[in-house]
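Cross-posting from the modeling subforum.

Setting up a comparison between two proteins and wanted a second pair of eyes on the formatting. Protein 1 (sequence, then C-alpha cells):
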Amino acid sequence: PSTQGLQPCAASGAQSVVVATIRMGFGHHRIAYAAASWGVASGRTTYFHDLLAIESPEAQLIKDTDALYSKGSRLASEMGGAVERFWGSLTKSGDGDSLR
C-alpha cells in the first residue's frame, strides 16, 4: 500500500497513550491490548500501532528476524544437547544495545 498523503499523528502529550506491538504470539498482543484498553477507559487519546500492519523496511526486518529465530529454535530443539544450550544462551542474553 502507498503511504503517499499520510500524515503523522499529532499526539497530545500527557493526555495520549501510544501502544505499539509486534504480533509475536497471543501473550504479547494481549498485554498491548490491555494497555490500549486502559488508555481508552481513562479517557486518553489512544493510538494502537501494530508494527507489522504496514509495509516498510522495519516491518520486513521484524519478519525476517522472526523467521530466523523460528528456524534456529526448531534446529536447536531437533539437535538438542550443546546446540540447544548454545541457542538458549544466545537468546537469553542481550539488552537494548545488543543489536547495534
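Protein 2 (same layout):
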Amino acid sequence: IAEASICGLPCMLSSFLPGQEEGNVPYVEDSGFGTYSGDPKVIADKVSTWLASPDLMQEMKANALKAARPSATLDIAKDLAEMVFEHKKKQVSSA
C-alpha cells in the first residue's frame, strides 16, 4: 500500500491479516485509491473498470499521492533513534 500510494497507483486488496492489516482496507477505501475483495471475479471486474476509465485512474492517482507518506520509514527510524538515545541518557544519569 505504501509503495503503491507513493507511486500514485490504485490498490486492489485481496486479503489482510486480522488485527495487523485490518485497518488497511478502510484506509485505502476511505482515501479513494482502492478497494477490497477476496472474490477473483469481483477483483477482475473492478480492475477492468478502473483500467477502462482514464478519468477514474487519474482521480485514484491523485488520491493515492495525497495519501502517500514517502518519508514514513525515515520518520519511524528517527522516532526509534530518539527513544534509544533517551533511554541511554536515563541509564547514564541514574548510574
